[in-house]
Amino acid sequence: MNPNEKSQQQEVNISDYIKILLRRRNVIITGFLSVFIVAVFYTFLMKPVYEAQSTLYVKDDKTKIDEMSNMLMMGKSASIQAEIEIVKARSTAEEVVRKLHMDWAVEPSSSTASCRILSIQSTRPWSEDDPSYTLTITGPDSFVVTDSDDKLLGRGKSGIPFQHSGLTFKVQLYGDKGDSFTLKRLNFNRAVESLQKSCTVAETVKMSNVIKITYQSTDPTLSRNVVNGVVQEYLNRSLLFKTQEASRSVNFIEIQLQGIKDDLSKAETKLQQYKSATGVVQLDAEAQQLITSFSELEKEQFAINLQKKQLDFALTSQKENLAQGKSYSPAVMKDDPLVAQMAASLSQLEVQKKSLLVTYTKNHPAVETVQSQIDELQRKIRATYETGARNLSTQELNVTQRLQKLEERLKQLPVTERDLAHYTRLAKVSGDIYTFLLQKHEEARIQKASTITNINVIDTAITPDIAIKPKKLQYLLIGLVLALIAGVGLAFVMENFDNTIKDEEEAKRLLNLTHLSTIPYLGNDDKEKAADNDSLTVVTHTDPRSMVAEAFRALRTAIYFSTVSKHKRVIMLTSSFPGEGKSTLSSNLAITMAQTGLRTLFIDCDMHKQKHVKLFDIARSPGLSEVLSSDTDLALALHETAIPNLSVLPAGNTPPNPSILLGSQAMRDLVERLKGMYDQIIMDVPPILPVPDTAMLTVLADVVLIVLESARVPSASAARTRDLLRDANAPVAGFVFNNKTLHSMAYGYGYGYGYGYGYGYGYGEEHKKKKKKWYLPSVVDKLLTKIGQSKIFKS
Fold it and tell me: Which of 70, 373, 377, 548 has its CA 20 to 30 A from that of 722?
């Protein structure tokens, strides 16, 4: 295919698309308006949506191993992704839902009223049938509570807990007297899922280590609180991961402190009471030395016990982290060279593993080798902890034995001195252990506090004051585009499912017949008639200079130049179905023929519908049916009209057997008789598909024209019409395309022998103001008029 052919094919395709759009313009307008109106209502009725956001910076740990990892940019992306997953974790969302009471919905009765839930709790499990509660303001700080059945449940005050049937809540209400709030419990799991879906967590720029957390809500205050709540919970969880062992140590020491403090108080009280009762207030040097030894050993025993607890905490943390697939770094015994060396090796292996995971999967042999080394180090760390625990147990046993020896020495003292030594020992040991625990508690607390999180909050969320949705102009533009797409798409969908003949080219390809002319929309001033598809108008007589009249003259010219038959005295018009405009076209064609000076007879052979009586202002009968039935004379059935050279033979009264009359020998004889009386005969016969006997009439015609209405006749029906006429050997000259959807000058089409000829005429009197132009079809029409007047066709 050469470029010219391609260009021509593309131009034809574009033309076809334009025709479809013009033909389906009503569908496009309807689809467009429907979608656009919905978009407008959605835009202006949508509640404003506000977005709060917070940004966090996740710092890298500043160890040498981590610096090497950062320098190689290995594992950094995975680390940030892990932090993002922690923020998005369900446990984080659950805690925020609980703190903000997002599993309860509050709907105020007016836009000026608001309710703040300070605390709320229900002991009953949630169900779909949970009742709703209505809180109605009755005073400055008072309200009444009713259930869904308007039953009074009680009265409450703002800021004071209200209790009823397992429900306890404390609220702060703002509004006028009479304002009410509907309190409804929601499903907790659904509230958590909703928060997770609405909360967006992402790294702002790749490799930036900056995370942005956003949340959208119709309540600007809620959006701020949710974002800040998620950030705070994330920070808490991050610190919790890093201070697990220190937290356990602090908690253990605090519990021990409380117990020792009570023991110390009791011991001091008993010692004072004993001194007052016995009068013995001081021990000798030997007893005092014994008490000092007791205190030191018991303090040492308590220190050993604390170290054992810390090892137990470390073993528990290691077990939990490994069970969750996390890496564990030693937090105790760091002063031990062996443990420090294993911790350094463990960090190196973790970096090596992260670098390998950038390229390989977990099941790759290289990754599995490194993982086996990490597992081996973890086992060694655990063995070191267990060995340390056993050594501490040995030390504890040694201290216990030494304490027993001191107990034996204490029993050898006199009774009075022994009792005083006992009470003094209790007070001394409790005091020293209490002081020791205070020191260890402070050390553990400092260790916990010194664990600084690697997360910095860059921007906290603030209450947004500008809604991000709806963006009215953007939404309307999107609605405009979608409406246009919907309208055009609907038009093409309907076109795809529509199997009717749309234009002349399609009819030519299907019927393989000549396209004689296209008749545009025949304007009708009578709206009631115009609404009727079968209404008739004689535009060729009332407005002979119009484009429509020009189209009929073009049709007349095309008939004269057709090669289907030498004689063209009897012209018959038929169609596939009723209502295609056949009667209108045949009557206007008859007028056009009469305007050339030919004696023209219009025969209405459609006895099923009487349409031409009012059009030509003639009597209905006598007519064709009476002539064929021999009920009247032909001269009485022929009616002269107000149009020069035009006579009409109406259909007459409808007989019980129209097909028999039309196919009779009398009909043939009548046509032969009329040929001798008139120069031109136009026959309007019934549609061929509903009345198949119509095909028999084609033997009476010199020329048969098929009338096709645009977008009305299915392709199969048009093909059936062609086949019936072909089987009857009808002299079909071609088809006339009745395009009722095309207004003459609306789209710039002209009519001659089809498209392509333009005429400078308009409707009504406007043509008088325009300069007259001469075109070939007009010249031919004038020539044919002269020929008709010269009686060439009268022989």
Answer: 548
Q: List alpha helices for 676-740, DSSP H.
A: 715-727
Task: Kindly state the helix (H) or strand (E) to which residue 484 belongs, with its residue range.
Answer: helix 472-497
Q: For residues 135 and 133, give the distance between their C-alpha atoms in angstroms, rounded to a whole number.
A: 7
Check: CB of residue 315 under 8 Å from CB of residue 445. Answer: no
Report the 10 Å Cβ neighbour count for 107.
Answer: 12
CA distance 558 to 570: 15
Residue 756 predicted with pLDDT over 60: no
Reduced to 3 states (helix: H, G, I; strand: E, B; else coil), residue 712 is coil
CA separation for the pair 20, 165 (Å, rounded)? 69
Bond preceding residue 687 cis, omega within 30 of 0: no
The continuous run of DSSP H or E covering 54 comes out as strand 50-58
Peptide bond preceding 131 in cis form (omega within 30 of 0): no
Nearest residue to 612 via CA among 527, 690, 683, 692: 683
Contacts of range 375-380, beta carbons closer than 8 Å, 24 or more positions apart = 377/342, 377/345, 377/346, 377/349, 378/318, 378/322, 378/328, 378/346, 380/342
Helix and strand numbers (H, E) in the chain are: 25, 20
Rounded distance between C-alpha atoms, residue 740 and residue 753, angstroms: 18
Distance CA 266, CA 255 (A): 17
In sign, the C-alpha dihedral spanning 239, 241, 246, 251 is positive
Strand partners, 210: 57
- Among the listed residues 368, 220, 385, the one whose alpha carbon sits nearest the alpha carbon of residue 315: 385
CB 522 within 8 A of CB 552: no
Calpha distance 721→501 (Å, rounded)? 13
Contact 768, 547 (CB under 8 A): no
Average pLDDT rounded to a whole number, residues 591-605: 94
Q: Which residues are 217's β-sheet partners?
A: 50
Distance in angstroms (rounded) separating the CA atoms of residues 641 and 541: 12
Q: What is the pLDDT of residues 426-461, one digit of tens each?
A: 776 667 777 777 776 666 666 555 555 667 888 899
Residue type, 268: E
- Nearest Cα to Cα of residue 87 among 219, 13, 195, 181: 195
Distance, CA of 711 to CA of 495 (rounded, Å): 10
At 126, is the secondary structure helix, strand, or coil?
Answer: coil
216-229 b/e with 16+ CB inside 10 Å = b?
bbeebebbbbbbbb
Prediction pTM value: 0.51
Edge-to-edge strand ranges of the sheet holding 142-147: 104-108, 180-185, 133-137, 142-147, 152-157
**pLDDT tens column, 325-342:** 666 666 666 567 777 778
